[in-house]
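Dear support,

I submitted the protein below through the web form. The confirmation email said the job was done, but the results page showed an empty box. After a refresh the structure appeared. I'm attaching both so you can tell me whether what I see now is the final result or a partial one.
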Amino acid sequence: MKARVAWKEGMSFLGESGSGHAVLMDGPPEAGGQNLGPRPMEMLLLGTGGCAAFDVVLILKKGRQDIHGCEVEIEAERAPGEPRVFTRIHFHFVLRGKQLGSEQVERAIRLSAEKYCSASIMLGKTAKLTHDFEIVEAGETSQTQ
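What the results page shows now:
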């Protein structure tokens, strides 16, 4: 896997993935940025959420669950001093589908967190990771777990 990051101007950087996609990252104005894109540490959280969601959806599909949607809301805390590593990350999954089984959803999240999601497993070396979920049935309210 390869990637390239090039400084553009101010505190903006263009990241290019080996698969040919690009994303602009920028710093906050107080650090010389123009707020033109997500911060690099935000990108790390976004990538981790994408990795976890990918795993959960794939596991549920393989388990023949009728999943229609998956969102992950992520909240993180960072160390107060340098290096400002993540110290706590909470993943809240919101899954939509027809008759999704809470046991199957819990299993999919656990498998992602413990076995498949390389990003969250790496971040788990410095941060305490927690997970919860809710299932939304079409036309009904959510069930938080």
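Response: this is the final, complete result; the empty box was a page-load delay. The mean pLDDT is 95.
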